[in-house]
Design goal:
By secondary structure, the protein is an all-alpha fold. The protein has 2 domains: 52 residues; 35 residues. It starts with 5 loop residues before the first helix and ends with a helix.
């Protein structure tokens, strides 16, 4: 411990600090490019008016669900009409 020189210790830490700073700067650049990619993909999902653009698979699923719901609604209307006629 007698031969400990603070200036040599600090000098040996400079490359480590520079490497750490370089890593932070490159990470920020990578995050920026990721954000730009996310924004570009988001433009495909949301129109400029803020309306969600349906994907083809999602549109087919919604159409099937709509047809199924319309079938259920029709059945319920028929049942209600039969119950109303039975009640008269």
């Amino acid at each position: 411990m007698k031969d400990f020189d603070l200036s040599k210790a600090l000098a040996s830490l400079v490359p480590v600090l520079l490497a750490a700073m370089w890593w932070v700067i490159s990470s920020i650049g990578e995050i920026t490019s990721d954000i730009q990619l996310i924004r570009a993909n988001q433009m495909q999902l949301i129109s400029p008016q803020g309306v969600i653009v349906p994907s083809p698979g999602n549109a087919f699923a919604r159409q099937e669900l709509k047809e199924e719901m319309l079938g259920h609604i029709h059945d319920l209307k028929v049942r209600v009409k039969l119950l109303e006629e039975r009640g008269k």
